[in-house]
Amino acid sequence: xxxxxxxxxxxxxxxxxxxxxxxxxxxxxxxxxxxxxxxxxxxxxxxxxxxxxxxxxxxxxxxxxxxxxxxxxxxxxxxxxxxxxxxxxxxxxxxxxxxxxxxxxxxxxxxxxxxxxxxxxxxxxxxxxxxxxxxxxxxxxxxxxxxxxxxxxxxxxxxxxxxxxxxxxxxxxxxxxxxxxxxxxxxxxxxxxxxxxxxxxxxxxxxxxxxxxxxxxxxxxxxxxxxxxxxxxxxxxxxxxxxxxxxxxxxxxxxxxxxxxxxxxxxxxxxxxxxxxxxxxxxxxxxxxxxxxxxxxxxxxxxxxxxxxxxxxxxxxxxxxxxxxxxxxxxxxxxxxxxxxxxxxxxxxxxxxxxxxxxxxxxxxxxxxxxxxxxxxxxxxxxxx
Length: 385
Prior knowledge:
Elements: H1 5-24, E1 34-40, H2 45-48, H3 50-67, E2 76-78, H4 80-85, H5 92-95, E3 97-99, H6 105-117, E4 130-137, H7 139-151, H8 154-157, E5 160-166, H9 179-187, E6 190-195, E7 198-201, E8 209-211, E9 214-218, H10 219-230, H11 239-253, E10 258-264, E11 270-284, E12 289-291, E13 295-298, E14 304-308, H12 312-318, H13 321-324, E15 333-336, E16 340-345, E17 349-353, E18 356-360, E19 367-371, E20 376-381
Helix pairs in contact: 1-3, 3-9, 6-7, 10-11
């Protein structure tokens, strides 16, 4: 869809104004100044697909009405960095919204924001502003922001927190699937919690690469790769179409050979050893996680799922079960819990980290996926609304 510039500008200003008003009434750290920065991918599906934007606009309006029941904050406002960054772009600077220009831009914006806050290192943490970064887009934009924060100093993590709004076509890593539920984290009491990440390293030293929801290799990474290549031509949920097409094409483009998988606990003890022809391997930060627009690849508390290679007709028959998590009961699926998973094979294979793909060559093996320490500051609700 070709979205005209006036439409995008109008959507951006409406979004920024509603969200800014909500932030002015947030209950987050009431005794500590809050300085917010909104990093938005205005090309994401939640902005450019009219039906989705209409639904999001209704959620923004109702959330603003709820937020206004809270006292108006005199110690909350957009960050000086955000206001300066978008000076001259209408009301975006007033409300602290910075549009991204393309892949990698959200990470660069976060780096610059952290740099601008360095002058306050001498201020005690309890007196310094809390820098709230609100990401508005899909999993890609939040992954960029969280990667920068994960690799930043402990000082930064004591002064920053991230809220991930579901404004993309794939929002499995957002803090809620529905926009109003994510905004509730600003409107009602919440706390800052340190979350883990997943780290991929390789034998050749590529990386490390980070994911904050699910990191996987195999068929699903191929689906993600092709979706990324085609979504600029076919905006919307193109992932669902590629799930069907990938079942037909994957074996023709990538050889599915034997893969050796070793799983370990946090102490380094071996938990599981497999040698199978593996169609996909998915590792989550925890169990009960989805990917590919809410497909329950990890439907229970176990955080690792492997799916063995199978005939084409069997793939077509089982693919729908991943939406509900019923694949876990099929003989091709092997689920378990692990802290670190090592894998190696003889053929190239694609990996995906929250929607970003990477081709691994045989010399990159063994690859290692492991859960990191808890280091990412995110919001968690204190009460159910």
